[in-house]
Amino acid sequence: MAWLAKVGDDYKPGALESTLHWQVIWPRAIALAWEDPRFHAALKADPKKAIKDTFGYKLSDNLDLEIVDAPADDKYDEAAAADPWHNLPQLKLTLSIPPKPPAEIQAVAITTYQDTSRTYPFTCC
Q1: Among the four 33, 60, 64, 123, which has the fewest Cβ within 10 Å?
Q2: Rounded to two decimals, what is the model's pTM?
């Protein structure tokens, strides 16, 4: 079982901190896209590169990220008390359920899945 030696080899500490940092990076990216048409275009063309080059934040290689503009009529609604952005389209995240491994290695397989950061779409691991 040579593959067993690789379990957790690519684990990198700081996954939680990186996930939390995304909550800072994404609003900054939005604000910059509003002000800088070149960054706006770069963010839509290659979001992982634009975010890394601008903010130094590396998104997971396992993430296929698409950035699109919301429809122009989905404007900020100052009168909406709970959510002034309620008109924006829903976010979409697609996750894959991996094929089922043999029963005797399922516990190891699911732990490996988590250790490789695939359970965290927005990590630098």
Answers
A1: 64
A2: 0.71
Burial 13-31 (b: 16+ CB within 10 A, else e): eebeebbebbeebeeebee
The DSSP letter of residue 81 is S
Do the domain assignments include residue 3?
no
Give the chain's domain count: 1
Q: Residue 44: pLDDT band by 50, 70, 90 thresholds?
A: very high
In three-state secondary structure terms, 53 is helix
- Split at pLDDT 50, 70, 90, the class of 125 is very low
- The 10s digit of each residue's pLDDT in 51-94 is 999 999 988 888 889 999 999 888 889 888 788 998 999 888 77
Is residue 63 situated within a structural domain?
Answer: yes
Domain for residue 24, yes or no? yes
Q: Is residue 4 part of a domain?
A: no
User: Cα–Cα distance between 114 and 125 in angstroms, integer?
Assistant: 11
